[in-house]
Each structure stands twice: as C-alpha cells, then as structure tokens.
Amino acid sequence: MPDGFERDILSVQLPCWGRVVRGDEVVPWLVAGPDGRILEPVRKFLRDFMARDNRPGSVRSYCHDLLRWWRWLQLVEVEWDRATSAEVRDFVLWLGAARKPRRVARTGSAGTAGTVNPITRKRNLDDRYQPRTIRHSNAVLRAFYTFWIERGEGPLVNPVPLARQDRRPHAHHNPLEPFRPEGRLRYNPRVPKQRPRQMPDERWAELFAALRSNRDRALLALAISNGARAAELLGMRISDLDWGDQMVRVIRKGTRAEQWLPASPEAFVWIRLYLADLGTPLDPGEALWWTLRRRSDSEGLHRQPMTYEALRAVLRRANALLGTNWSMHDLRHTCALRMARDESLSLVDIQTILGHAHLSTTARIYLVEDEAQVVRRVQQHLAEREELRQHPVPSPAASAYHAADLAVLFDGAVS
Description:
Blueprint: E1 19-22, E2 29-32, H1 40-51, H2 56-76, H3 85-97, H4 131-151, H5 201-209, H6 214-226, H7 230-234, E3 241-242, E4 247-251, E5 258-262, H8 265-278, E6 290-296, E7 300-305, H9 308-322, H10 328-340, H11 347-354, H12 359-366, H13 371-390, H14 403-409
Antiparallel strand pairs: 1-2, 3-4, 4-5, 6-7
Helix pairs in contact: 1-2, 2-4, 6-8, 6-10, 11-12
C-alpha cells in the first residue's frame, strides 16, 4: 500500500463468497473458498489448533473469523502472507462501522434492536459487530499469523501488533503481587464493564410460568439451582443423575473435568415428570435432553438430542410472550448472586459450584453490590429527606435546667 493511502471504509461491501463447512475427525470444521476448495493455510493452522486440545466449538468460531478475514483480503487485493498492520487497522475500522449480514431480514425484532428492554434492563442486540467480537477476531488473527511466522512461511512481522509499551513488561515486578496482563493488542476496542444482574423472584416466576413443557421447566429449574452453563447441562446423560443425593454430573466447559453439582428438589421433580412424558425409558448412556424434529414431510417427527439452538428457541418463545430478553446466562448470574448474598456460603463454595479456575474471577464478578438494591436504598433516602423537608421535626424541649444557670439568669433570685 502506498504511503498516505487511505481506504474509504464506509463504502466497503464485503463479498459473501466462501463458507464454513464440516471437516473430518481430525479437524471438525474448515473454511472453503469461492471455488469450494478448502483453504490450506487455514486447515494447517486448525490442525495445530486441535492438537492443543481445543474443542470443536472453538474451531468453528475460529473458522468464521478467518473466513471473514479472507473475504476482506480478497476485497483489498492483498495475499494472506503479505498482510500488514494497515490491513488489520482498516479491517477493525470496517468492523466497527459495518452491519452484520443476515440470512433473513428482521421482522418482530426490528423495532427493538439496539434498545434497552424496560423489564430486564438489558440491551437488545443489534446488527453491528460488538467490541467483544472484534477483540476475538484480533486474537484469532494474531494466533493464526504467529503459527505461520514460527514455521517461517508467513510474513516477517505479525500484522496484528501489540500496543506500544513504554517499558519492558514486568521489568520492576514485585514478587509479592500478581502479574498484570501485558501485551494488549493495539487495535482492540474497549469493552464496557458490565455487572451481573440478578433476576428478581417475581420475574423468575413469570418466566417459569411461560414455559410450555416439563422438559423446559426441568432444564431451567436445574440451571437456576446450581448455575451450570447451558452447554454443560445439554451434555448430560441419564447416568449423570444421582436421585438419592439429588446431584447431577456435568463436564466443565474449560477444563473438561467431571464435577458433581447439587440440584434443588424442585428441579428433580420436574426431571421426573419430563422423563415420564418421554414414555420409553432411556439407557444410562443416552442423552438426557431430547427434542422432536421433522426431517422431511414424509418421515414425520423424530426424536433427537437437544441442541443449543433448540434451547434458544425455548427462551425466544417465552421472551416473546413476556416482552423480555432473558438468556440462560442470566440464570447462572442469578444463582451466583443468590449464593453470594447467603452468609452461610463462603466465596470458595461459590467458586467450586460455578467452576471458576481462580478465586479472583468469582470475587471480581459476583462480590459487587446489586445495582437495583442500591437504587432502592437511594430512593428511600431521597424520600425520607423530602418528608423531612415538608414536615420538619421540632427540636426537643429541655427536660431540666441547671440551678447555676438559672441563678445567673435571674440574678440569684432562684433558690
């Protein structure tokens, strides 16, 4: 690119060629180009990525970021191994100004996109790329180019640069203090800090009443009782239920470790009702959660394991009925904040149930004052001040006088 050249970011229309396709047992997801051929640089990188014990879901996420980057490179007519920080800079600027392509136009959600829900006080997502999406894209691109630079086959310098440091990282580190994160990417947008919000009990009752089936009631009752993630709950099998001790076993999202979690008696009641609705008993190794799907018009409905998209559809139906935008992660936050406000539970107890690797993560997220409770207390304070202003309380009269003071006042006439 010539010095001083600036692209017209606002007029850029990203081409829609290529797609993310199913791979094989080694690399579950790959990126295909406009001619249908697999992009070899991406495939080799993902093969190494899988060798580092990453999950298929992460591979699919990386594929979408790399496909978007490849489309950008085709648009600006730059080969992948000749990209510079200028291409990354303009790409980040485009992501901040562009709208995400949609397969189907918005209908009912067109009027609420980007607005704040008046009931949940949560912002509805719009069609723009969020700061977290841009940061994730930058991290994927830096990892991709780091892999090829280490092989000696990529560009000489990583096109995703780090922010300039005024000093050498950890040059004067105190060994008694934890290391601070260093090496922030230069073009990473700032992410606003968001506090977890507890779902009020009356809102939880409304959401639970809006569910259509015992399966949905069992899933959400289980989620709010132990704070397990949606993916962890959907991965459960029949053998993961301990009816005697009322515990469930989940595979943790990050560590892939098995962990038994307590569940509420109410959740087990709904699980029992859901299993009775299935009619046929399930084998211990079978999935716990099932849904009915129509494969074709001639075959009718077939039972298959429930997916994350099916679970999202459950919440979409309930939210459409209530006019809310609750998510499964709101149930995890609600469970965690309920435990944090229970004096009989320690912070280590909460960390163990939530599956956080570090105690500092639990403290940083959940040891915060509930914003709604703070607002209520301040409103009460203002109301009391207004009441005091309109109806001031008179100063209390003196209950007794000192004899010496009266003698001075009345020139000794008081005995």
